UniProtKB/TrEMBL annotation:
Domain of life of the source: Bacteria
Coiled-coil residue spans: none
Species of the source: Cohnella thailandensis
Gene Ontology cellular-component annotations: cytosol
Keywords in alphabetical order: DNA-binding, Transcription, Transcription regulation
InterPro entries: HTH-type_LysR_regulators (IPR050950), LysR_HTH_N (IPR000847), LysR_subst-bd (IPR005119), WH-like_DNA-bd_sf (IPR036388), WH_DNA-bd_sf (IPR036390)
Ion transport recorded as keyword: no
PANTHER family, per the entry: HTH-TYPE TRANSCRIPTIONAL REGULATOR YBHD, NITROGEN ASSIMILATION TRANSCRIPTIONAL ACTIVATOR-RELATED
Molecular function per GO: DNA binding; DNA-binding transcription factor activity
Membership in a protein family: Belongs to the LysR transcriptional regulatory family.
Protein name per its UniProtKB record: LysR family transcriptional regulator
Length: 298
């Protein structure tokens, strides 16, 4: 038995004849008659009693109509919901955003996306880029912002922003005002880092080790603004991208470009290479790619 069988039977009952039902369904009368005969053959029982031109239900037909109404109603609701999802009238997207990326790059993007697709719910998860990458890979998140490089075998991506880290320090620090500072010059400094789970935490430690020292970590935080305030109080130094350094203000901290090595801060939008992606998630990827490409070209 198919949905079409239920639709045809209910239309015949509604119109009282095969001919009128066929007209309403925009099919031929022989087609609807054949479908009913096929249904009767499948059930081994007559659905309509042939009594001249009048279409009268048998007991089996009455049972079919009794169940057909709620089934067709639910089917209609299902079709409407699928159409809404397909044409982006509804749906949801789970998006991972690191604090620095979320506050500086995405408020306007989110506003523009919600204005275009008000029926789509954006479920934002703030976390470190390393944890976001793990959550995308295991399917907990649909998409997210992470730091390059990433696991390109499992994830696909496009670039959002390309910057370098600067060293921030109290304006009275011995290195404040320099045009640049080498990483090795920071061997005796007190470091304020992001907590474990943030990609910059492991990357900064790794880079320090590569030039021959273990960083002395005195404080850790998940909030870039709190890190900036601790540096402003002279509690240690930190490394942040240029966009964030400009936000902190030169009266609070001195931001000096880091060299030897340069540590890049490259944000990408990432999603799983394999597996199902909803229409809403695909549209988010297309929409944000277009917005950031325009920003990079400007």
């Amino acid at each position: 038995m198919e949905i079409r069988h239920l639709q045809y039977v209910t239309e015949i009952v509604r119109h009282g004849s095969f001919t009128k039902a066929a007209e309403a369904l925009h099919i031929t009368q022989p087609t609807i008659s054949k479908m009913v005969r096929n249904l009767e053959d499948e059930l081994g029982a007559e659905v309509f009693a042939r009594d001249g031109k009048q279409a009268k239900l048998t007991a089996a037909g009455e049972a079919i109509v009794r169940y057909a109404e709620p089934i067709l109603q639910l089917f209609g609701q299902l079709k409407t919901e699928i159409d809404d999802l397909t044409y982006l009238h509804s749906g949801s997207i789970r998006i991972g955003l690191p604090p620095m990326a979320g506050s500086h790059f995405f408020p306007k993007v989110i506003k523009n996306f919600q204005e275009r697709y008000p029926g789509i719910a954006l479920k934002l998860v703030e976390d470190g880029a390393a944890r976001i990458e793990e959550s995308i890979a295991d399917g907990t998140l649909d998409v997210g912002v992470v730091l390059w490089p990433l696991d390109s075998d499992a994830l696909d991506s496009f670039p959002l922003a390309e910057e370098r880290l600067k060293v921030i320090m109290h304006p009275g620090h011995r290195l404040a005002g320099r045009t640049s500072v080498e990483l090795a010059e920071l061997a005796e400094e007190s470091f304020i880092l992001f907590v474990s789970g943030f990609a910059l935490h492991d990357r900064i430690i790794s880079e320090c080790r590569s030039v021959g020292f273990e960083p002395r970590i005195v404080h850790e935080s998940s909030q870039w603004d709190f890190i900036g305030e601790m540096v402003a109080e002279g509690l240690g130094i930190a490394m942040l991208p240029d966009t964030i350094c400009r936000t902190l203000g030169s009266e609070k901290v001195s931001a000096v470009p880091l060299i030897n090595p340069v540590i890049p801060w490259e944000l990408v939008m990432a999603w799983r290479r394999e597996g199902y992606r909803s229409m809403a998630a695909r549209e988010w990827i297309r929409f944000t790619r277009e917005m950031f490409a325009a920003a990079l070209e400007a």
